[in-house]
Amino acid sequence: MKVMLGLSGGVDSSVAALRLLEAGHDVECLFMQNWEEDTRDGPCSADADRKDAVAVCAALGLRFHNRNFAAEYWDGVFEHFLAEYRAGRTPNPDVLCNREIKFRTFLDHARELGAEKIATGHYARVDQRDGQWRLLRAADVNKDQTYFLHALGQEQLAATLFPIGDLAKPDVRRMAEAAHLPTHAKKDSTGICFIGERDFRSFLAQYIPARPGRMQTPEGKDFGEHDGVMYYTLGQRSGLNIGGRRGASGEPWYVVGKDVQRNILYVAQGGENDWLQSHRVRAAELSWVAGAAPAHDFACTAKVRYRQTDQSCRVRIEGDSAQIVFEDAQRAVTPGQSIVFYDGEACLGGGVIEATDAAFGGLAPPLSTLHHA
Asked: Which residue ranges does the record assign to the tRNA-specific 2-thiouridylase MnmA-like central domain (predicted)?
């Protein structure tokens, strides 16, 4: 079977290539450039990654393809990313990047090049049961990436292989070293999907100019000025520049709310303060791996952020959205981020968090009502 591997120039996709060869597949590799580098932002990481990908292909004797999908990335991912920040939400570009670029644009292009399936170096697994494709957690729970893959459906999963989903990360490193792959000791990539590591605030400021405003406690006490509410996220501690205050407890300060219209950033002390707690969440833009929700009303576990432990909840479908009630209070549930649902090892799907019952979350009474209740 001819398989087109998305080769990023990292160790994970390098070992994915090795395992595909060992399984007897006819393997070719494609390196995706999805961001037009500007050297003012720092070193051109995409160029270094491309050279590493070429070196891996040379070491394994594989055909190398290079494609620029920057226009598709801008239209399908980055414009949405900016719109969400302008609205005061905190988007998750990795989810959209997977859906729109890695498992749509790349998949379509791979088929044009004659591939029957695509493969990536994601930590996830796929199987088929009762005629349905399932997205399963990776064997290495610390590296599992199903949270970012939850928007994939039956067509994508039927055409996808995850060759390292059954491996632990240390084993991936060992296999790469044993095969003398040039990426065996390469550091894992972090940062925004395809954009990489950089000072996030200065990067965002190139597209969304700073709009300073007031920083206040929920009770209305003025604490100075912020740089722009779009630069902050719920639960954030760093970058507030709030020193010791007379009458305060000495605990660290955290972002607990944003009022985009009035340009106010709300802060409170204590990482577990009540302003950050939610039991109820409303989610929209739902996607289901099986093509539909398992039921109109069902129990499952969910994550509201990557690496969070599973949280018990109940999901009720209401038209195009869902109401989720958690068994335990959840900290800093952030509009714009993804909520992802699980049944054991199977990822069911997920959606985008719209609102919560935290005081600033949109499901609770207005702040003025809370203050005067």
From this structure: 202-269
Closest CA to 282 of 223, 358, 209: 358
Please give the model's pTM, rounded to 2 decimal places. Answer: 0.92
CA–chain centroid gap for 198, Å, is 17
Consult the annotation and say whether 344 binds a ligand.
no
Q: Which residue range(s) make up the domain with 355?
A: 276-372
7 is in an annotated binding site: yes
β-pairing verdict for 346-356 and 338-343: antiparallel
CATH of the domain at 48: 3.40.50.620
**Residues 217, 284: one domain?**
no
Average pLDDT over residues 331-347: 97
Of 24, 32, 37, nearest to 6 by C-alpha is 32
Residues forming beta bridges with residue 301, ordered by sequence position? 312, 342
* The residue count for the chain: 373
For residue 132, list its beta bridge partners: 129
8 assigned ligand-binding residue? yes
- Phi then psi for 200, rounded to 5 degrees? -65, -40
Say how far apart CA 310 and CA 161 lie, in whole Å: 25
Report yes or no on 204 lying in a domain.
no
| Closest residue by Cα to residue 340 from 369, 365, 307 | 307
* Residue positions annotated with a catalytic role: 97, 193
- Indicate whether 113 and 174 sit together in one domain: yes
Q: What are phi and psi of 360, to 5 degrees?
A: -105, 10
For the stretch 215-240, pLDDT in tens is 999 999 998 899 999 999 999 998 89
121 is in an annotated binding site: yes
Among candidates 135, 122, 117, which has minimal Cα distance to 23? 117
* Maximum alpha-carbon separation in the chain: 71
